[in-house]
């Protein structure tokens, strides 16, 4: 993205975490939007479904967390891991069969979520230690004081299309335009913690519940209308939030694929471009390196 920022003043910190197990309680079943009971996998552990660019919906899953679900055993250290990890940060396994392998943080949920190659995921297991190279919180756009940047590695920012337009707005490309009434669980929470579940992507249920979001992919850039994630998450007419889909299929009513917040501000501060290719997979890892070489 062609935009001036304070990226050269950001601090890099190496934080520790571990692959966390899937958890449950003795009350096994939950119910979906139609009242039908379900028992499905989704959160925690190592999940071999939902790489960047793959469908977010259609899985037999609830609160699908792609790849590695990472947290820290100490509550305070875990909050730091959640708050400081940014989309695009490098995550390296430092123990277990996949030690030395790496992936990329794609967002937050109950855990920090890490996409990696299948070979890395297949060798990983619960309890494996990871190091997260955190960088990005505090990122600010010099020419766009009305726009708050959240949870974004500056390397991803540089690889994204768009930038400052001739009339002074911030051009951002998104794959999907999300209506305000899709915002579900996650409202009222810190925009550096977990994500916002989007309702209306209940594949296979009553069509009256659909908001046309069944085609969402993991990593899609989306615009959330009439929402403000500057200092939390809430409804604010005339404002928008740009996020990236970090979680997938949900069966629980009021929940759904969720975007991690990236930008938020008054709608007039943005020029939003609908672009079917606007997906995080083009802006991280090898894809990011290739784009930098082309730009050079």
TrEMBL record:
One Pfam short name: DUF4438
Domain DUF4438: 29-157, 164-283
Gene3D superfamilies: 2.40.10.170, tm1086 (SG structure) domain, tm1086 domain
Name of the protein in question: DUF4438 domain-containing protein
